[in-house]
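Entry for iron/sulfur cluster complex. Fields follow.
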Amino acid sequence: MAQQEFIIQRYNPDTDESYEESFNVDVQPGQTVLDSLNAIKWEQDGTLSFRMSCRHAICGSCAMKVNGQSMLSCQTQVDAAAERGDPIRVGPQGNQHVIKDLVVDVEKFLLQFERAETWLEPYEDQDPPEREYRQKVEEFDHWSHASTCIHCGACYSDCTVAAVDENFLGPAALAKAYRFVMDSRDSKREERLQFLSEEQGGIWDCTRCYMCVQACPKDVLPMDAIMELRTLAIEAGHVNNHGVRHHKGFMSGVRKRGRLDEMMLPVQSVGIGRLLTGNLAAHKEMMDYTPGAIRLLKSRKLLTIAQRHGANAEGREQIERIFEEVEAEKHHHDVDAEAFGAEFETAIGGH
Ligand code: SF4
Ligand code: SF4
Ligand code: FES
C-alpha cells in the first residue's frame, strides 16, 4: 500500500469560499480516484461533496476534472493519474455552475438535449409497431458510436466553445442529434438538419478543437458527428447560413491568395448578396466585426495589396495542388457514400 496526495478544489456555498485542500490517502493497486474520494469522505472529511452512483462507468454521474482533464473518476485509476509521485488534482467539471465542491449544476448541459429535440419522431402515417420500432443492423452500424453516450458531460466540460458561448448546443447534444438524423425510423431528418444549420450555437459554431473526443469515456466521437452533420446539411441544401458562407469564404481565400484573407472573410461570412440588398441584420453583423478588424489592422495581419494581387505565386500553385488532391479523394469517398445513401433513401422512402 502506498500513500498518494490529492489536492481537491473545494467550494463552500454558505460562505461563497473557494479553496484547495490537500488529503493523503492509502491506495492499493487498481484503486480508482472515486474510491479515494470515498476514502476521504468516510475517513477524513464527511463534508466533501461529489456525485457517484454505479461505480462502473455506466451512470455518468462521477465525471470531474482530474489533473485538469474531464473524465469519469470511477474509471480512472490512481496509478494512471499520478505522475512521478506528484499530487493528483481533482476539481469540478468546467462550463457549469459549481454547487458545492465537485458537484455542478447540470441543468444547462441537459437543456441542450431538449433544445435539439433528441428523441425519436416516428412517421405519423405509420401504425405503431406491436413491439419495438426496428432498424437494420447495417443502418445501426453507421451511428452506433453516437448512441453510447451516458450523459456524463465530460465533453461539455472541456469544450472550448461552450466555455465562451452559453448558447452553444455542445458536443453531446449535437452527437445525439446526429444519432437521430441518421436513424431511418425518424421522420424529422430534414427539420433537424435545418435547425442544426441555422440555429445560433449549432453545428457551425464548433471550432474542431478535438477536446470532446479526447474527454469522452465512451468513444462517442462528438466532433466527428458534428463534421458529418455539416456534410449532410450541405448535401441537403442548407447552405444559406453564416457557417457555410464562412467555410466557403475561408476556402476561396486560401485557394485564390495562398493564405487566409481576413479582410474579405467577414464580408463573405455575412453574405455579399445580403449586404448589397440592404439587409439590416447583415449590416449589423458587419458592425459587430469592426472592433476585430481594427485590431487586425493595428497588428498588420491584413493582406497587403501585393499579396492580394498575386505575390507568392509559387506557394499558391502548391496550395492549388493540395486542393485538387483533396477533391479527388472526396470524389472517391462520395462514390462509396452513395451506396449507403441509396440504401438509406430506400429505407426511409418506404415509410
Ligand atoms: S470539437 Fe467542437 S464540440 Fe468538440 S470540444 Fe471542440 S468546439 Fe466543442
Ligand atoms: S458524448 Fe461522451 S463525454 Fe459527452 S456526455 Fe456523452 S459519454 Fe459523456
Ligand atoms: S459512478 Fe457511474 S459512471 Fe462513475
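NOTE: Residues 216 and 232 are 23 Å apart (CA to CA).
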